[in-house]
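Subject: sequence -> structure tokens, single chain

Hey, anyone have a minute? Need the predicted structure for the following. Not urgent.
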Amino acid sequence: MNVSIERSGCISCASCWTDCPEIFEEDPGDGLSRIVGKYQVSGDGAQGEIPDNLRKPAQSAAENCPVSVITVHTKAADGGIGTPVCTKPFDAENARSVDADNPCDNGER
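Reply:
Had a minute. Here:
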């Protein structure tokens, strides 16, 4: 599994690193969320490879992210990033999820 964080959109709410400290942590340099070191890809705090047994906690973090900057992907056959497993498009103006067909949509509209 692959997980990514769009760090520029992170608001440092601590939701992900509180809910899933196995994968996420606060970067002491800028206060934003990052992938923990052992799962980072090439030292990039925004990209990580996680074991399949952490898929559910990663999905939960993505679902609970108030600004929807976390995405969980399958791993492609060539080892690259595959299909998104969990994304939650977000309408910041109305503070709600916008995709009813999305597996991460919690239905709060």
